[in-house]
Amino acid sequence: MTRAPRIVVLAGGVGGSRFVLGVRGALRARGLDDTASALTVVVNTGDDLWLSGVRLQPDVDSITYALAGVNDTERGWGRQGDTERVNHELQEWGAGWPWFTLGDLDLGTHLARTGWLREGLTPTQVLERMSHRWPLGARLLPMTDTEVDTIVVLHDGSRLHFQEWWTRHRATLAPAAFENPGVAASTPAPGVVEAIADADVVLLAPSNPVVSIGPILAVPGMRVALRDSAARVVGVSPVIGGKVVRGMADVCLIAIGVETSAAAVAGLYGARADGGLLDAWLIAEEDEHLASEVAGRGIPALVRPLWMTDAARSTALAEAALAAADV
Ligand code: FO1
C-alpha cells in the first residue's frame, strides 16, 4: 500500500489505551509522521458519568492521557503524579463518592469538559478541542454524542452504576446482566460511520468485550457500518490462557454466558461471513490449541504474542493486527 493506511480502532479502558499506543507506534515505525490522519479511535463512552457536577469520561481520558504520555501507568487511570487535595475537600463536604478518587489534575480535565458541554459543544467537539493540547497522533471520536450509561443488574434485581460496581465493589457482586440505558436511542457520533466506511482495517482492541467494546457495538448503526465497510475487521483477544489480561472482564463474560476463553470471545463477536464482525482473530501462543475451535466458528485465527508488557510489544502486536488485514 503506497498511501497511508486508514485505520479505525474500537477501544476502551487500559487494554484499549495500550493497544492504541501500539498502533501509533506501528505507524511511526513505518515512517509515517502524520499518524493522526491515519488513525481514528472510536472510544467507549458507556462508562461516563456525572459526579460532583462534572462529566467524567474514564475511557476517553485514559486513552487521551496515554497518547499524551501523562497517564498514571501504575494505576491504569488518571494523571501521573496527581494529587488529591480537591478530592479530600469533596469528601469533607460529603460530596461525590467516598470510594472514587478525583485527582486534582484530572479534575481540571473534567471542569474544562463540563464547561464546554454547558456552553453547548457536543462531546465530539469537546474531544476535538481537547485533542489540541497534546500531539496525540490519533483522532479520537466518542462512540456517540448522547449520554449512555452502563448499569449492572444484580441477581436480587438491584441496579448499580458500572463505576460503583467496578470501583467500590471491585466487581465482587455477581452481575445478572448489564444494561445500557440511552443506547437504543443513540446514533454513532459524527464522523464514526464515515471513518469506518473509509477504513482499510477496523481493529477491535483487546478491551473488555462486555463493558468496553459491547456498548460501542450496541450503538444502533455501528454493526451495520462495520458489516458494510470494505475494511477488514481484525480483533485481538483480551483473554490469554483462559484468563483475562487485566481488570475483571471474566466476571462480565460469565454474566452474559460467555466462557473466559479466546475462542468463546471470538464466538461472541462472530464471523463476518456469518453476519458477525470478524475477518480475523488474534490469539495468544498460550491458546494455540484453540485455533481450530476459532476456525470452526468460521473465523481465521492467527497465533501471535499478545502480551503488551512494554511499548515494543504493543507495537509488535499492532503490527501483527495490521498485517492480518494486509495493511
Ligand atoms: N478506578 C478505581 O479503581 N478507583 C477510582 O477511584 C477511580 C477513579 C477514576 C476517576 C476518573 C477516571 O477517569 C477513572 C477513574 N477510575 C477509578 C478508573 C475507572 O473506574 C475504570 O477503570 C474504567 O472506567 C474502566 O475502564
Topology:
Layout: E1 7-11, H1 13-29, E2 39-43, E3 49-51, E4 54-56, H2 58-68, H3 85-93, H4 104-118, H5 123-130, E5 139-142, E6 151-154, E7 159-161, H6 162-168, E8 175-179, H7 192-198, E9 201-204, H8 213-218, H9 222-228, E10 232-236, E11 239-240, E12 243-244, H10 249-255, H11 262-269, E13 280-283, H12 291-296, E14 301-303, H13 311-324
Helix pairs in contact: 1-2, 1-13, 7-9
The chain binds ligand FO1.
The site of ligand FO1 has 16 residues, from helix 2 and helix 6.
Keywords: Magnesium, Transferase
GO molecular function, one term: LPPG:FO 2-phospho-L-lactate transferase activity
Enzyme class: transferase
Give me the Rg, rounded: 19 Å
The helix content is: 25-40%
- Kindly report the spatial arrangement of strands forming the biggest sheet: 5-2-1-9-10-13-14
Given as residue ranges, the uncertain stretches (5+ residues, pLDDT < 50) are none
Query: Which ligands does the model contain, each kind named once?
Result: ligand FO1
Mean of all residue-level pLDDT scores? 96
CATH architecture of the domain at 7-47 and 141-148 and 181-324: 3-Layer(aba) Sandwich
Pfam families: CofD
EC number: 2.7.8.28
GO molecular function: LPPG:FO 2-phospho-L-lactate transferase activity
Protein name: 2-phospho-L-lactate transferase
